Fold this protein.
Amino acid sequence: MHDDVVARFRAALPGDLPSTDFVSLRVVDEQAEAFTLRKGVLEPPWSRHDIGAMVTVHTQGGLGYAGTSDLGESGLANAIARAREWAELTRARALFDTRTIEMPRPTGTYRTPVERPWADVPVSERVAWLQAMGALVGEDPRLVDWETSLYAVLTRMRYVTSHGGDITQELHHLAPDFTLIASGEGRVQKRSTGMRGIARQGGFELVAKAGLEQMVTRAREEAFELLTAPNCPEGKMHLMLDPGQMMLQIHESIGHPLELDRILGDERNYAGRSFVTPDMFGTYQYGSALLNVTFDPTIPEQFASYGWDDEGAPAERHHIIENGILVRGLGSTTSQQRSGLPGVSSSRATSWNRPPIDRMANLNVEPGDQSFDDLVKQVERGVYMETNTSWSIDDSRNKFQFGCELGRLIEDGELKGLVRTPNYRGISATFWRNLAGVGDRSTFEVLGTPYCGKGEPNQIIRVGHASPTCLFANVDVFGGA
Amino acid sequence: MRAWFDSLADHAARQVRGSEGFTLSLTGETSEFARLNRGKVRQPGSVTQCMVNLRLIDSGRHASHSVPLSGDPTTDRTRLDAAFDRLRGVLPHIPADPHLLINETVQSSEDDIPSTLPPAAEMVDAMLGEAEGLDLVGIVASGTMARGFANHLGQRNWFARSGFNLDWCLVHDADKAVKASLADFDFSAEALATEMASARDQLKILARPARTIDPGTYRAWLTPSAVSEILGVLQWGGFSLKGLETGHSPLRRFWKREDRLHPSVHLIEDIAGGIAPDFQGDGFRRPASTAIFTEGTMVGALVSPRSAAEYNRPTTGAGANEQPVSLSLRPGSIPVGEEIARLGTGLYVGNLWYTNFSDRAACRITGMTRFATFWVEDGEIVAPVNVMRFDETLGGLLGDGLEGLGAHAAFLPSNMTYDERSAESMRVPGALVSGMRFTL
């Protein structure tokens, strides 16, 4: 893949490159496409092809990068020269000496397992699927807006280094989606997949496997029912979260605070710092003993899987939290060596035009041994919540407040009627210690989202979060205005 | 870059067949970024990128495809030809679009200011020199950005700016930090020194023992930065005609005149006073200003060409997402320098962070204080305050709860660099609020 670009890169490398220097080329060739049907009208199809390369240079302890969409001989030579110039100009004031960082030397290939590639699906079939979804939504005066969409991305990457690294990866992403807006009784309610939560890797076969037809049919009735539902009750009570809301809960209050670059201070001006400090690793009780969290970019169908990260570290599954104890951070080769802390293969860039930083990839809560009904039976008074709609957390990733599209009362061990505008708030450092029940594999869902923002310059990246339904005790729950 | 784009537009015009039409929009930049941490350089680099989006239109059907430009004429023309071929393969399989609105009035423009910027490395030197011995974290971003538009009718629009955005914190300890920024088209070492000196002064206050306040309702002065965060969350569908017509906008009650803000609230989309181009990706020109709130009453919305067709309204030249690019809140009468005295006793909120809707239909907003937030007693700053969560309706902030707006509106260029460097901005004053609810 892109052998011609690699050949030009190698030809452009200085012949007298010292053995202590490191130069890498990361070519990203990405094709994205989206089809959307809104209120029965097909919106204009949109597609995008982007290709470019990021050159990174480590020289004499300094670091520089240059991203270019010019993959010709002079474009690559200029990028190498510009990255080298930055490294030389700033090495005297560099935050760390790159000679202390031993970069991986990966070789190999990785490809998402695909049964039916998106590119093989005719436009007419894509449109027909959307129209079939539209037929299920149907017409009702209370449905003031709705849309359903298909969003597919094929990412091809080639990463080569001056010291022998050479990997090729091909990742197929697909995110089918719907959103329904209902209005009535002076209220407006939304039901959706939640931030394109049905985002996975694979081909068009994912659409059938995801069961969106059943989901949209159920969501339609829930949207109507929410219009007349009472406000969510207020008070300290049990909280049960579906995998859709668990995705957000994991992401914000476990994933981000455990990123080593936050702990190292890189993000303090923008995305924030962390309440987690280096001394906590290995001993800190992050959650109850029921909490087991893994970083796992090796699950083929999960949204943020790969063979190697963007520094070339091989994808490996690791426990981040084991039986409630914090054991490992989300930090790349560079961050691990800067901090001296254990990390994972989490160096990722949004595309060729941004340098890699510490990212989550797939971060999952492992299933427990309780059925959905078992979890409900534990609750004397509480609320079950589905699908994130609001998220806010402080810059140390501690004080949070989240809201969901749907709530359902739980009383005396039984699910009762719907409640609208359910919210809850808490503190990461104590919330997970109140984890009172973890659903078994029958409650487990593999989800993801394309929308995680971080970094300077800013980057949006795909993440995956799989989780069972979970139960938390003593949570501050409340409703709308 | 301009000549390169014109050449491509001419090439595109030659590819049109029969009843076809096209639009071509360009987004490009040559940027330098240097990420800083602990007063040192973390990640410096350069990015040169350029994309064009081709939309092919034929008999009411249309679709678009974006391709990167390499700078090599042969490569780029080949990519554009491939985009035409791809779109010709799509159009026969889709229906005509009832909400298609094409700009058929040629409105060409050119707005290109040559760069006077020094090399980015000089700005890095200046930043680190001014912050010698301090824990500085932030980013230097500079360079040239361009936007272009062309269509089959011969319209050509070009916008190019060279500017810089220095965005940083001076950290006292943990989450106690002073946020500062300097953005302009011409770099001035003296202006940087002034901003850094001001940040150093605030840092001294952060060294005082921090106070934790109990949840409750407090009188508050919101700085222009904090007000911009409130207006920022309203951009998520708030001013969108589509959102307002479907009822999903958090401002729907204001749109239906069931509620209103304080009479001193005059909010406009101020293209003439901002730094964004006055044309959008479909080639529609943006008016110099679009009124959104006048004397507290919602009087207008942002209307994309698509919504204009769907709801039979004139477009305001908004993009497809109907978000503002140059929001301006008219200043009030609280004199500069008297803000803390007018506050009396309460919270001086330097920055808000991570705002979202806790009840979208009621326009109730939650978020966190961040960086420099202080407890004030009898018009004197007493202590920094540990971060607190607020949860308050828009009416509580800019409606019945608004006591007054500052006499100076700060110009706040966006520091966002998702995909590319932003050309958006806001111009907002601070706000004195009689009671702001803090919950955690």
